[in-house]
Amino acid sequence: MGYARKVGWVTAGLVIGAGACYYCPGPRYNDWSDDDDDNMHTGGPDLGQDDTILSPQELQKVLCLVEMSEKPYILEAALIALGNIAAYAFNRDIIRDLGGLPIVAKILNTRDPIVKEKALIVLNNLSVNAENQRRLKIYMNQVCDDTITSRLNSSVQLAGLRLLTNMTVTNEYQHMLANSISDFFRLFSAGNEETKFQVLKLLLNLAEIRHSRERSAKVHFFPS
């Protein structure tokens, strides 16, 4: 179904020990996560709205469930909840401060494609944050390799492309994918329409690498 698949069916009670945290249906995942929403209120959760508002204590319970769950369907539900929570700017710092980035990134090693896709979506939403990008850069090579070698046009491949696109919006980390540009062109050539679209967005970001090299060459050729 792609990146904009519906996730509103998840209304799971996530229980750890004696405490429980509840997930309220949030927005669909977007290629670009929502930034601060002027319409958000600061009071208690309103189940009639799309807002996903959890306290740090409740977020910690979700992260613990993600880290400890051995059942794929529970882990999938927890990741969907966390992905919706991470779609809101004010939650991204909290998730990072609670140690959520390495917890989610560790799941990238799973062989379960459904769970892996959900983990990539969470990281994609978290990556719309400069400090989170700085900490997530250590996983870029793994995400890049997994994206290139994943089944062509698969949900995992598309989720990986979206994360890499977010991570290369600025020129801070574009150089880390420089050696993989030919592989992305191969995906563009072989992929379906959706894959081509996502690869094209990534390649447009990576075009800055060539421009930077050309500028460096000119400076070297014409020393002041």
Structural class: mainly alpha
Largest sheet: spatial strand order: 1-2
Residue share in β-strands: under 5%
- SSE pattern, N- to C-terminal: EEHHHHHHHHHH
Separation of the first and last Cα atoms: 55 Å
What is the helix content? 55-70%
Globally, the shape reads globular
* Number of extended strands: 2
Q: Poorly predicted ranges (pLDDT <50, ≥5 residues)?
A: 1-12, 14-51
The helix tally amounts to: 10
Largest sheet: 2 strands, antiparallel
Cα-atom Rg, whole angstroms?
19 Å
Q: On the 0-100 scale, what is the average pLDDT? A: 80
Assembly classification: single chain
Domain Armadillo repeat-containing: 54-208
Membrane topology: Single-pass membrane protein
Organism: Equus asinus
Protein name: Armadillo repeat containing X-linked 3
